[in-house]
Fold:
Amino acid sequence: MKKLLFPILGVSIFLLILTNKGYCQHLSEEKQITTFGSRIRNPITVKAKSNDKRVIFTVDNSSFYAYELKINFKSLVNLTPLVKEQKFIINAHARNSRIFDFTIRDPFAGHNYQYNISYRIHLNDSEPSPNLKYLIPTEKNERVNFNKLSHSYVFDLNTEDTIYAMRKGYVTATTNPYQTYDKISKRSSIEVMHEDGTIAIYSGIDFENILITAGTTIYPGQPIGIFNSDFDKPFSVSLFRVLHDTFLCTPIDFYTESPIEEIEDYFRIIPKHPEELIKKELSRRELRRFKKNKLYKRSFL
Structure:
């Protein structure tokens, strides 16, 4: 892991440089993802509020990724307990998370403090869940052609074809000209973190045709976008796991009920979205909603 240090108003910001090491089978040359395509500027904000007895520090996280925060106090005057350095994990999109609660020793004397902070995206090492199949992200029961490139599966879609979630996950970023996210891909895309820490990228979806929002949970088989061949073709999906702060390309084990046809330089498959596979990652509450046909909520940016 390499670190870039940017001093901004006394705050040190650590950015991860993520290097793809080419762990995927290479069929044809394709540009590798080596870093985040976009980053939020100053995603972590530390605030302090006080009265005549206490000083309370809280933190906000504007990213849909968790962050590691380190705060180092240079001085604490008339405050207790005495603290030098502390580390915290700040959850994704946290608001007013309390990190310190200081007591003012002498309410008739002034108090003061001086500190600096550093932070970086918190990525746990991840490994794809064993024996877990992924839904093919296109219309079920309709034949679709696809190809496998160095770190993505490219599908041959038509304008207005619906794109579906391959599995349950938390949306960390979408394409939105009015909002900046910590986003891996530079293309118009939807990025989803799964429970096992792997990250799926659905690329080539027009901003105006994205059907879900960042910061929400999506479910297998849920419509997440509409393809527009005039906007950003082709449509592709990629899967990455994290190892030592590095994104590693990972094969996707798609669910199939019939053999994959190999036709010259591409493949053909018939997608299936069985209920048993959809229900595999759902909680009891989600299963009840699924049975009532209320699990998928369509939302727009």
Q: What stands out?
A: Residues 2-121 form a domain with the Immunoglobulin-like fold (CATH 2.60.40). Confidence is low (pLDDT under 50) at residues 1-34. DSSP finds two helices and 21 strands in the chain. The first helix runs from residue 275 to 279.
